[in-house]
Automatic annotation (TrEMBL):
Its EC number is 1.4.4.2. Residues 774-895 form the Glycine dehydrogenase C-terminal domain. This is Glycine dehydrogenase (decarboxylating). Signal peptide: none annotated. GO terms for cellular component: cytosol; glycine cleavage complex. It comes from the Bacteria. Keywords: Oxidoreductase, Pyridoxal phosphate. It comes from Marinomonas transparens. GO terms for biological process: glycine decarboxylation via glycine cleavage system. It catalyses: N(6)-[(R)-lipoyl]-L-lysyl-[glycine-cleavage complex H protein] + glycine + H(+) = N(6)-[(R)-S(8)-aminomethyldihydrolipoyl]-L-lysyl-[glycine-cleavage complex H protein] + CO2. SUPFAM superfamilies: PLP-dependent transferases. Its cofactor is pyridoxal 5'-phosphate. GO terms for molecular function: glycine binding; glycine dehydrogenase (decarboxylating) activity; pyridoxal phosphate binding. The glycine cleavage system is composed of four proteins: P, T, L and H.
């Protein structure tokens, strides 16, 4: 009975909406695993030495509505100006059907990276479309999909040139007309690889002997020049050339591929993705066929399925083709897939004709404005696509002030120059307003009747056709686009279909209330370099988030700059390196990494110029303390750090983590705790309190940013105070509260700032209690699954008291030896039950790693366990000889509807066994769109473009 109105007010309803099991279900699960209460489970699971009862963010749970109201108040402190700042970020019209059907649609944003291609054909096609857009516009032979931002793409281009060029030379030329944030990140990344970056005028290129060069087209000075001569000259000198490009300009301009470029990179932001105060946006890197096998990032390719039909998959993928641990060429893992899909759909929606209209409108309005101000005596750059550098002399500040008073932002290019970059959103009325800032009166007719013309040499106009593939010429009405997007969406399994039990990936709920603010203009339409007096809402949000995340992790402060977990690793290692050097310790470059680590750990260490030394794990999967002691001592003088994941990637809370940290500290090393598994630590054992000096937090795991089919993500790093002075800064906009601005690791000062609202909402709505309960339940759910499955599939590792952490590894190796059925067969068979497979063969080959997260209720956990147990029974039938190893539902999985309709059914099992192996499947059947995909064929016959439409037909 409720006794008063207070009992009817509820601020904590969201906790129960986020956490799957209610108290009755929790009791059932606890009984199943033989434990009395959740606190007792935590006592049995988390080592006493690191347990810390209180999480004190001083945050009470807030209702969804109140949290949105609070966030709206913060948002309203941001001023949405009309932005003409440019410098790599442009306002754009995000097509409404793309907002509604993709950005705000869990069918797209809750999907995972397409490692299991049979249930990912929709997003693979969307990403292939993106690659085709990039190939067509850049004029290159192959493109990836995608990278984190334009500046890190430049750094990837640098390292690709370095390893592809046999020339013995460590000098890189970067033209000073490149974006300042690009130069900043390239310098950061070059330093530890001992590459010398020469920043100079492109006119002086011939004076330098280099292995590679980076130019920009059009340059930051707005000018549009034919780069063919300087590219030819570079090739003559034995250098490779990378060009940073602006995608919209390439709709009109001759392509850099046509000019002879080796690599072309850039950002796809202005193809319908909001500026978002810096991100998230997809970057791209395209290159020549000759370099395809050393491309960074993911590449989507065409292969065929078991029925011989075309099917898509990630090409060259042995987990990540470029993350070869310590021999890595890149550490890119999570990488902006959702934003690449948005850009791809933007091109699908507008098509070549629509894009040309947009590009020509931007170019023509720029030209019209240039003529108008030149007529009044202002001088500008003589060639331009969308950017004018105007000599404003002593009027510079007054013009900028006049513009700001109208909430119009220009960029101050120098003390005497204003830079204006025009974009898709500009109207004739805006142009009139802009002219007024220069004291010029323009009439509407003068603008609208001006001829459509561009401000660059006609010889540079593109002659070749772009986007000729049917997909770019078919879906221009909203009805057609909506249906095409829906067709792709339903091919895939995302969280709106069933649980995604991917170990280490934490596929938890991304709640609607967390997602709603992402599309608010006060967060989306803000340029990352907007004047600080326009972004105080963002500043409040960043400060509050830094405070909350610091408290949740036990660190002193947090850098919000890294755009992914792997970038966080890199930024953390950089801070460690700078810290050692600041103390005169110049030789500390050994990074100890347990053999069970995620591939990005050694990859990031290699990119930070460190020497990776692998530490063994013992038979229980724990770090082998004796081996660690031996290696730490052996490398004592060079010991930089250890990178350890906690709870370990083996899914257990290692008892000796404090000893591990103490040992490394004893030899002068620093401790990097990989925070990918923070879902088991928040409110229970913050890594900063048991010995970590730095950790990255995958906000796209523990803190609810959706995975988006392979990104966005955010990888902020928490650090202890001694590392705080060495966090990344920024060349254009100084990072808040940083005394010294060290080199940046991302293009924008706060990475993908607009999605930080998701994490803010999650923390606010959960409060201290909810966050702690989430951890408890994540651990409960994993232990329940381990208990139910153990008698069917042995659980590989457990902690001291027989419990697992928030995930568990089941060992398929003995079963495979007995039956011939592999972990891959199980993974593919799960698709017939409507489930995404658990993580396959990581960190131990021949195993499956299951992470249910706290968001799944008992019914869903049981459905998954029932499916796994049914599969075990099927394996039993193969073992018993009832079904042969060559013909059984596991080896033939997944089963498409098409294959079941074959008149002739020759299999040893029935159609019903194939499609409806358990009764409940019928009511919610997911039909895999393709049969099992041939990986080897795809890699041998690498084809990474949209195939002609007729190849999809029978
Ligand atoms: C343990 C671990 N560390 C690091 C990473 C890399 O994170 P990201 O994909 O955000 O770069 C992952 C990603 O799955 C991971 O599981």
């Amino acid at each position: 009975m409720t006794s008063c109105i207070r009992d009817l007010l509820s601020n904590d309803e969201f906790i129960a909406r986020h956490i799957g099991p209610d108290s009755a279900e929790q009791a059932t699960m606890l009984a199943a695993i033989g434990i009395d209460s959740l606190p007792q489970l935590i006592e049995r699971t988390v080592p006493e030495a690191i347990r810390q009862a209180n999480l004190d963010l001083s945050a009470l749970p807030t209702s969804e509505n109140d949290a949105l109201v609070q966030l709206k108040a913060i948002a309203s402190k941001n001023k949405v100006a009309r932005s003409f700042i440019g410098i790599g970020y442009h306002d754009t019209h995000v097509p409404s059907p793309i907002i509604r059907n993709l950005l705000e649609n869990p069918g797209w944003y809750t999907a995972y990276t397409p490692y299991q291609p049979e249930i990912s054909q929709g997003r693979l096609e969307a990403l292939l479309n993106f690659q085709q857009v990039i190939i067509d516009l850049t004029g290159m032979e192959i493109s990836n999909a995608s990278l984190l931002d334009e500046a890190t793409a430049a750094a990837e281009a640098m390292t690709l040139m370095k390893r592809s060029n046999r020339k013995k030379n460590n000098n890189l030329f970067v033209a000073d007309h490149c974006l300042p944030q690009t130069i900043d990140v390239v310098k950061t990344r070059a330093e530890l690889l001992e590459i010398d970056v020469i920043v100079d005028d492109i006119a002086n290129f011939a004076n330098h002997d280099v292995f590679g060069a980076i130019f920009q087209y059009p340059g930051i000075d707005g000018s549009v020049n034919d780069l063919s001569p300087v590219i030819a000259q570079a090739h003559e000198q034995g250098a490779l050339v990378s060009i940073a490009v602006d995608l919209l300009s390439l709709v009109l301009l001759k392509s850099p591929g046509n000019m002879g470029a080796d690599i072309v990179f850039g950002s796809a932001q202005r193809f319908g993705v909001p500026m978002g105060f810096g991100g998230p946006h997809a970057a791209f890197l395209a290159t020549k066929d000759a370099f395809k096998r050393s491309m960074p990032g993911r590449v989507i390719g065409v292969s065929k399925d078991s029925h011989g039909k075309p099917a898509l998959r990630m090409a060259m993928q042995t987990r990540e083709q470029h993350i070869r641990r310590e021999k890595a060429t890149s550490n890119i893992c999570t990488a902006q897939a959702l934003l690449a899909m948005m850009a791809g759909f933007y091109a699908v929606y507008h098509g070549p004709v629509g894009l040309k209209k947009i590009a020509l409108r931007v170019a023509s309005l720029t030209h019209c404005f240039a003529k108008a101000i030149q007529a009044k005596g202002f001088t500008t750059n003589s060639s331009y696509f969308d950017t004018l550098i105007i000599d404003t002399k002593d009027q510079t500040d007054s013009i900028i002030a006049k513009a700001e008073a109208k909430l119009v932002n220009f960029y101050k290019a120098s003390a005497t120059q204003v830079s204006i970059s025009f974009n898709e959103t500009i109207t004739p009325a805006d142009l009139i307003d802009l002219a007024d800032c220069f004291g010029i009166t323009l009439s509407e007719d003068e603008v609208t009747e001006a001829s459509a013309a561009q401000g660059f040499d006609a010889a540079l106009l593109r002659q070749d056709a772009i986007l000729t593939h049917p997909v770019f010429n078919s879906h221009h009405s909203e009805t057609e686009l909506m249906r095409y997007m829906h067709q792709l969406e339903v091919k895939d399994i995302a969280l709106n279909q069933s649980m995604i039990p991917l170990g280490s990936c934490t596929m938890k709920l991304n709640a609607a209330s967390e997602m709603i603010p992402v599309t608010w203009a006060e967060f989306g339409r803000i340029h990352p370099f907007a004047p600080s007096n326009q972004v105080s809402g963002y500043h409040d949000l960043l400060k509050e988030l830094i405070d909350m995340l610091s408290k949740a992790t036990g660190y002193d402060t947090v850098s919000l700059q890294p755009n992914s977990g792997a970038q966080g690793e890199y930024a953390g290692l950089l801070a460690i390196d700078k810290y050692h050097k600041s103390r005169g310790d110049h030789d500390r470059n050994v990074c100890l990494i347990p053999s069970s680590a995620h591939g990005t750990n050694p990859a990031s260490a290699a990119l930070a110029g460190m020497k990776v030394v692998i530490v063994k794990c013992d038979q229980d999967g724990n770090i082998d303390l004796a081996d660690l002691a031996e290696k730490a001592e052996k490398h004592a003088a060079q010991l930089s750090c250890i990178m350890a994941t906690y709870p370990s990637t083996h899914g257990v809370f290692e008892e000796h983590i404090r000893e591990v940290c103490d040992l490394v500290h004893k030899f002068g090393g620093q401790v990097y705790i990989d925070g990918a598994n923070l879902n088991a630590l928040v409110g229970v054992a913050p890594p900063g309190s048991f010995g970590g000096d730095v950790s990255h937090l995958n906000l796209h795991k523990t803190f609810c940013i959706p995975h988006g089919g392979g990104g966005p993500g955010m990888g902020p790093i928490g650090v202890k105070s001694h590392l705080a002075p060495f966090l990344p800064g920024h060349a254009v906009t100084p990072v808040l509260d940083m005394a010294e601005q060290h080199g940046a690791v991302s293009a924008a000062p706060y990475g993908s700032a607009s999605i930080l609202v998701i994490t803010w909402m999650y923390i606010k709505m959960m409060g201290d209690r909810g966050l702690r309960d989430a951890t408890f339940n994540a651990i409960l759910n994993a232990n329940y699954i381990a208990k139910r499955l153990d008698e069917h599939y042995p659980v590989l590792y457990t902690g001291k008291n027989g419990a697992v952490a928030h995930e568990c590894i089941i060992d398929i190796r003995p079963l495979k030896a007995e039956s011939g059925i592999s972990e891959e067969d199980i993974a593919k068979r799960l698709m017939d039950f409507g489930f995404h497979a658990p993580t396959m063969s990581f960190p131990v080959a021949g195993t499956l790693m299951i992470e249910p997260t706290e968001s799944e209720n008992l019914e869903e956990l049981d459905r998954f366990c029932d499916a796994m147990i049914q599969i075990r029974k099927e394996i039993g039938k193969v073992q018993d000889g009832e079904w042969s190893l060559e013909d059984n539902p596991l080896i033939n999985a997944p089963h498409t509807a098409d294959s079941l309709l074959d008149m002739e059914w020759t299999h040893a099992y029935s159609r019903k066994d194939a499609a409806y192996p358990l009764p409940w499947i019928k009511a919610r059947k997911y039909w895999p769109p393709v049969g099992r995909i041939d990986n080897v064929y795809g890699d041998r016959n690498l084809f990474c473009e949209c195939p002609p439409i007729d190849s999809y037909e029978d």
